[in-house]
Design a protein that fits this description.
Layout (H helix, E strand, L loop, with lengths): L6 H12 L5 E5 L10 E5 L5 H10 L5 E4 L16 H27 L4 E5 L12 H21 L5 E6 L18 H14 L3 E3 L2 H9 L3 H4 L1 H17 L1
Parallel strand pairs: 1-2, 3-4, 4-5, 5-6
Helix pairs in contact: 1-5, 2-3, 3-4
The structure holds NADP nicotinamide-adenine-dinucleotide phosphate.
């Protein structure tokens, strides 16, 4: 597990334990203490190549890698002072996921193939202007997930893409829209891994967004444009 300390990551740890996992390596930047002996805390910043390598060397018995760590800087791509937020988001959400997949692919192969779960987003498919870099990073991570699935099929690794709209965690505390519970997402993902599913669309938002892709400019973007224009007018009045 990456990003195991809070939010969806913590729910993943609970869900895995609830389904009888023998051991869960809980990776987080600052290792937490856990009240279950099956949880092994690991110091893991996914942007730190030394920590990623050392996690792969230490966790030789992993058969399920969950790439959950992610950040959202809520910064537009054009109207921001610089591109540092977009670079940070790519660093964690794309390159961090890539580094983990590369480091753990041989471990998974040695353990019979196993599975990789990449936690993506509806933002892989519809680019939110208020957090443009986040959308770009999740699109890139979606492409990575699809390419890795093809590349790793031969070694028997199931590669699962998880998409959701809003999940009720700290990342979106300010959002008032409906949110799915982290436990619900985890239950769907773990059911999916057990049944060999390659994609989990966890909520109506993700199902509707994917279905709208052939007509995305027509169906998805007018609403985003209205929201963006309203926000801009609101700021101009302040
Ligand atoms: N919440 C949503 O609406 C939503 C919707 C769709 C997809 N997602 C995705 O779900 C995943 C989990 O997010 P969340 O909702 O649980 O948000 P969250 O509560 O903000 O948790 C983010 C997690 O990522 C970890 N993290 C951030 N940077 C890291 C790094 N460099 N190395 C390792 N861990 C790092 C954080 O660790 P620290 O505690 O050390 O900061 C934290 O555990 C993310 O990939 C997110 O993009 C979220």
């Amino acid at each position: 597990m990456t990003g195991a300390g809070r939010g969806l990551g913590r729910s993943f740890v609970d869900g895995l334990l609830g389904r009888g996992a023998a051991k869960v390596y809980a990776g987080s930047r600052v290792p937490n203490s856990w009240d279950d002996d099956r949880v092994v805390p690991i110091e893991l910043d996914v942007t730190d190549p030394v920590q990623v390598r050392s996690a792969a060397e230490r966790c030789r018995d992993v058969d399920l890698l969950v790439n959950n760590a992610g950040i959202m800087r809520l910064t537009p791509l054009i109207g921001s002072d610089d591109d540092s937020a977009a670079r940070d988001e790519l660093e964690v959400n794309f390159f961090g996921t890539l580094a983990m997949c590369r480091a753990f692919a041989p471990v998974l192969a040695a353990n019979g193939g196993g599975a990789i779960v990449d936690v993506l987003s509806v933002a892989s498919w519809v680019a939110p202007p208020a957090s443009g870099g986040y959308g770009a990073s999740k699109s890139a991570a979606w492409a990575l997930t699809n390419a890795a699935r093809v590349e790793l099929r031969e070694q028997g690794t199931l590669v699962v893409a998880v998409h959701a709209g809003f999940i009720d965690t700290e990342m979106v505390t300010r959002v008032k829209a409906p949110k799915i519970s982290p436990a619900d997402v985890v239950a769907q993902v773990l059911d999916g891994v057990e049944s060999g599913a390659e994609e989990i669309l966890a909520d109506d938002e993700s199902r509707e967004t994917k279905a709208a892709l052939p007509r995305d400019l027509e169906v998805l973007y007018p609403r985003l444009q209205r929201l963006w224009d309203g926000r801009r007018r609101g700021r101009a009045r302040e």
